[in-house]
Amino acid sequence: MDRRLLEKLKVGEVGFHKIDSNPDTGAAIELRRAAVSELTGTSFSHITNFSFDVEKVTKRNIENMIGAVQVPLGVAGPLRIRGEYAEGDFYVPLATTEGALVASEHRGCSVITACGGANVRIFDDKMTRAPVFRTKDIIGAHRLVGWVKENFARLKDKAEETTRFGKLLSVEPFVAGRSVYLRFAYDTKDAMGMNMVTIATDAAVDLLLSENEAELIALSGNMCTDKKPAAINAVTGRGKTVSADLVLNGEIILEKLKTTPEKMAEVNYRKNLVGSARAGSLGFNAHAANIVAAIFIACGQDPAHVVEASNAMTLMELTEDGLYCSVTLPSLAVGTMGGGTGIGAQQECLSMLGVAGAGDPPGANSKKLAEIVAAAVLAGEISLIGALAARHLAKAHAELGR
To answer: How many domains is the chain partitioned into structurally?
Structure first.
């Protein structure tokens, strides 16, 4: 190890990001880790263990790398799904440190499978980016909105010059005084598409600015809206808008969940609907984010997009045949290409689900993944509502030592 360079790192004479090729990527990681160890007094014996290709991840996924954090990986299933893209029995990978979560999901999967499987359908698919512009006044704002409507085809051509697969679907304007927000929506096929739509929108903005008296204030004006709670995502959707449902048999509810359809329906009504409304929540569900986060971490998705997925709404209604259960996720951002999906462990988890890489036709794999996530969320909702109805929640956590 180059002790002289290490000392320069410690005093800030050389920045952490300056040494990635000095002398090679592995040595740079070791130097940064040694510097952090000496600066913080921490002995690293765990973060040094990983199997992925450091050359690959340091070019695409991480900066100033010093190691890796391991997250325990569990599996739940089989989960029977009857979707347009996901059809059959699936074993769902869940990366989490929350004890009892995988056990609960596994139970929910068994209930769904015993009742014949979950129906799943995708209702919308679009990734958005919404730049904000400033005009002179509302007259200028009105003129800009009119120009966008008249020149959509030209904006579409300009945006699509930047991508092989992305397609501009619409540009929806929102005005606040002389601030104009243009919500560009794209079909991004198997990519989650955040980078794709940012680059494409930037190109379209150049065309807009060349023909209008407006100033671009920010390429993202928070009307997109990514990685933040937002009603616009819950109402109009972002990423995949997907629903899953089935009818639970009363006998299976009693056998596997130790409760009744009536109790589960009331728990869902007073907790997920009334309770969420009273709290002013954007999500009307029990713990959708739990399942989404565990799948996202396992499958190389962007964990920050869990916030949009938490907009889910869970419904449970008594029927002649038992208990109708559904979950709708209006803004589920997933992809099977790009981002963390190419890292070794994450790619293996995607392969477990049969969705690694590009789909045939393009977009099929990301839609399949979205259907699997929705069915898995439904399983998690059924299990937790069942546990609450049977008053087993605290008992389950206590028995598992959590």
So the answer is: 3
Which pLDDT belongs to residue 398?
58
172 and 209 part of one domain: yes
- Closest-CA residue to 101 (of 267, 248, 295, 345): 295
Residue 371 belongs to a domain: yes
Which residue range forms the structural domain that includes residue 242?
74-124+234-399
Q: Which residue has the tokens 């300056």?
A: 18
The pTM of the full predicted model, rounded to 2 decimals, is: 0.95
The residues carrying an active-site annotation are: 98, 302, 397
Same structural domain for residues 206 and 142?
A: yes
Q: What is the pLDDT of residues 178-195, one digit of tens each?
A: 999 999 999 999 999 999
pLDDT tens sequence across 275-332: 999 999 999 999 999 999 999 999 999 999 999 999 999 999 999 999 999 999 999 9
Whose structure tokens read 């399942």? 291
pLDDT higher than threshold 70 for residue 402: no
Tell me whether residue 155 is in a domain.
yes
| Residue 21, pLDDT score | 73
Strands 87-95 and 118-129: unpaired
Task: Tell me the two tokens of residue 347.
Answer: 């790619």
Domain boundary among 173, 189, 218: 218
CATH code, domain with 358: 3.90.770.10
pLDDT band of residue 127 (cuts 50, 70, 90) is: very high
101 contact partners, CB below 8 Å, separation of at least 6: 94, 290, 291, 294
Q: What is the DSSP letter of 2?
A: -
How confident is the model at residue 20, as a pLDDT?
A: 84
